Predict the 3D structure of the following.
Amino acid sequence: MDQTLPKLLKRIAEEHPDTASHYSKNKSGEFVPTLYKDYLQTALDFGAGLLSIGTKRGDHIGLICDNRQEWAISDMGLLSIGAIDVPRGCDATEHDLAYILSFAECRTVIAENQTQIKKILNLKEQIPLLKTLIIIEPSAEETRQAAAESGITLYDYATLIDDGKKWR
């Protein structure tokens, strides 16, 4: 019996590599499959990307995102390295995020978009341990600058996956 979700995903990817694990819309609005073998490898690359920036087993990582492919990959990637996810949807208020992320002692937060990044940057004093943000959607220069001015390092999701591939 598989003891963790990453081990379960690994077994399924080995047994059914070319079966779709899930479908998501592309830029044209068409549903495209993500195969189990690709889901596993991308999650492992993301996890390795987290390791490459100093994430450690047992770290609490905020995951502020609605249901989408990147959420599944991020979640499985951080679980695969022994990190602990602290999830909330994009409908979370600043008050909710301040309480949850500070109580969970999150040093890293993965956020879906610039709106979520802005909410979190507004809370910097209430989340004193926060050092790293990862944004799933492309970031604007003003967002990068605001993060830097707050003393927070901002990584792009796709770049972190590429770095993880190299790290692996």
Notes: Residues 36-52 form the longest helix (17 residues).
